[in-house]
Write a structure and sequence with these properties.
mainly alpha; 5 helices; 80% helix; globular; binds zinc ion
Length: 79
């Protein structure tokens, strides 16, 4: 299990869709169980989406939506 600090260290990597499959799984596992990190990731994603809305590119938006969907799925699985 990653620490909160490790999650924060890898946050931009995670949000950009980079990093190894293993790292992303570890990050998702932590975020799904840690309310604090979930809020940070969620807030950051929403900020990124606002920024992405101003860009003419569709890729960041699509990536953001996919991540959000996946996170929502993870969270729903906990309930
Ligand atoms: Zn955490």
């Amino acid at each position: 299990m990653l620490t909160c600090q490790e999650v924060l260290d890898n946050l931009s990597c995670y949000l950009d869709g980079e990093g190894s499959e293993e790292l992303r799984r570890e990050l998702e596992r932590h975020i799904a169980r840690c309310a604090q990190c979930f809020v940070i990731v969620d807030t950051t994603k929403q900020s990124l989406r606002i920024i992405a809305d101003c860009e003419p590119f569709e890729v960041p938006l699509a990536t953001s939506a996919r991540l959000y969907e996946r996170l929502a799925h993870f969270f729903a699985g906990l309930l």
